[in-house]
């Protein structure tokens, strides 16, 4: 057993941090929210160059056949840097659905296009995911109802608290194919895992920003980070994130090994990462005070994203229910 | 990144499981902080030792199995899953022994380790004092040099000494250099609790049993042979990495996972009549126990790779101690009006309430969780020490 990232994983994470750290992503995200997709699409191409879009595409179709652990590494970086776009849909969900559909749905884009980043696909999967994220950035909009995969058209744009999440109603189109239910379930679990990793990354960023601010902001003659009340809140965030992370990686290992416990483990990861990230966002706001509450200050972008992701890809109640069902089915 | 066990580890796990299945007492032992319970738990330690399972991570020369850190975690999982008794020898085995291995003389190893491993001698810790709790470095008990007799004379008072009411020996820190303050000038001593000049006064815990005690020292002579490490170096010896790794910092996840599984079983039995919100709490308790288990595997990977635990031990302690309380609170709320019962007719013989009362000590001992949060904030997050 070695429950730790390999050097390759660390290298991948560093490469992504390096690329995204220089990309002024908060400003890209603000433009994306206003419908100016150019900066975000440029970022999509650059992330494709380092392999992000190819992760889940099979090698024979020009992809990397990467496992769920790599997905977690990548999506933690996407969350940490606030990258906008339908990454969960196009990078995680679509390759699984397209590979499963195979020749049965010739109208779908080729997997090769997903891998090299040329094709962007978004997917609505009601009831947990009723809207198609960023449909105006995608060439293809799909809708998944149970195991039935259909084409869909983007309808009305709805407004999310995270304005960089451009949510579109979907108008049902033609049913393309009925997929293997087990494949669909695994694909949706991997999507929920990717969302958990995004939450983890966003939570880490909210904590780091808060610690930095608490170390410089002065009130009553001293740096506010000296106050024990603040220290204890921030310590609680450190604890929550440190114990959510192994659940996220543990779920990735369960998916990678095809464990029967994978749905339970993904749900545990989603519950814990959402709770930890949400705590991080609340404490970040409290640490910053009024400046954190402004539209202008970037922290709010993370706060709103975390709030949106908490209920995305399965609400906490849904995932707790799955955990409870699984653990009471296996104990005597 | 994987969670796979190799052949040796699986064999170890299966051997432990099989042995425990055969030897764990069918009926729970009486509480170990009662005279009859203390005796019964020492006998259990003897049984464990005879099977070679009392100190799996120790060298074979001292009754262990040279188990790796991971194997130790696996053993603990099996131990608690089997519903085996609490370890009356725990303080000695997990707090003192690693320090004897690192700093002890050949004579100390020979004299103390084997009797500790088989329950012949139970050790009590003597850290806190009336004016030195979480602020342990404020301790005032003294050790004065006695060159004529070749040793030290101890005076003062220790308190909250777990197991001391019935134990045979104690270990703790004393100020051996009155000119030094705080962490300097302390020495680590070992002493028999029936030594001349020692008075032990048992203290009842919240559960009514004398699980800890005050120890009064009045001119107690301790020979040089019972100084652990170098005189004056006691703080460093007591806080050494080895002691923390396998002791309190790396608290085995087995206990919490087994309790979480029992909680799930309780929900299965009684959940139909309970509100859904309690079900969510059951799920949360299980998730937290699982998080602790996986976190521990991550720590094992880091330590095995040569890293040390450092201030992450504080993150760990905050999490497990609060998880333990929440887990038991959930079970009690699920038991409803019967939860308060502790008699023989109580559900599971009152085990959930006993476990709850035990869990309540977690956020306090080994440095309260408030102290741990200061450590996390200052050493891990890098916030300024300043005024609190």
User: How far apart are the termini of chain B?
Assistant: 41 Å
**Biggest β-sheet of chain B: count, sense, barrel?**
4 strands, mixed
The name of the CATH architecture of the largest domain in chain B is Up-down Bundle
The helix content of chain A, as a percent range, equals 55-70%
Structural class from helices and strands of chain A?
Answer: alpha+beta
Q: Could you state the CATH homologous superfamily of the domain at 183-330 in chain A?
A: Butyryl-CoA Dehydrogenase, subunit A, domain 3
Q: What's the number of helices of chain A?
A: 11
Q: H/E element string of chain A?
A: HHHHHHEEEEEHEEHHHH
Runs of chain B with pLDDT <50, length 5+?
A: none
Measured as a percent range, the helix fraction of chain B is 40-55%
Describe this structure in words.
The complex is a heterodimer of chains A (332) and B (388). Chain A has a domain at 183-330: Up-down Bundle (Butyryl-CoA Dehydrogenase, subunit A, domain 3). Chain A is 57% helix and 12% strand. Chain A is built from eleven helices and seven strands. In chain A, strands 1-3-4-5-2 form a five-stranded mixed β-sheet, covered by helices on one side. The two termini of chain A are 28 Å apart. Chain B is α+β, with helices and mostly antiparallel strands and 388 residues long. Chain B has three domains: 7-88, no CATH class; 123-233, Butyryl-CoA Dehydrogenase, subunit A, domain 2; 248-380, Butyryl-CoA Dehydrogenase, subunit A, domain 3 (Up-down Bundle), CATH 1.20.140.10. Chain B has helices spanning 7-23, 35-51, 69-81, 90-103, 106-117, 234-238, 241-246, 254-270, 276-304, 312-335, 351-359, 369-380, and strands at residues 123-126, 142-146, 151-162, 169-175, 186-192, 198-203, 212-223, 227-228. In chain B, the strands form two sheets. Chain B has a four-stranded mixed β-sheet with strand order 1-4-5-8. A four-stranded antiparallel β-sheet of chain B has the order 2-3-7-6, with no helix packed on it. In chain B, β2 (142-146) and β3 (151-162) form a beta hairpin. The longest helix of chain B has 29 residues, at 276-304.
